[in-house]
Design brief:
Order of helices and strands: HHHH
Helix content: over 70%
Structural class: mainly alpha
Number of helices: 4
Strand content: under 5%
Radius of gyration: 16 Å
Length: 85
Amino acid sequence: MDLDRLFENKDYLEKELQFFISKKHIKISGENKELVNSHVRKARHNLEFYKINKLNNDFNDWLVVTLYYSLYHSALALITNRVFV
């Protein structure tokens, strides 16, 4: 999969989405704004934890984990907003 091409070519993006749908890795669901908002809240919560603790060098490993999960929940919010799960 060519990540740059996913952003540059909508037809390629749609083809890749259809591939993952056909393999049942993702499925189309109904609109679920509550789930989208839940993921956004969790992403913001993780970012807030990072902001509060970023100057404490004793927990750098957990700060990385926190940023990872913030990105993870942001991505899930975007995917869910496109009605995929």
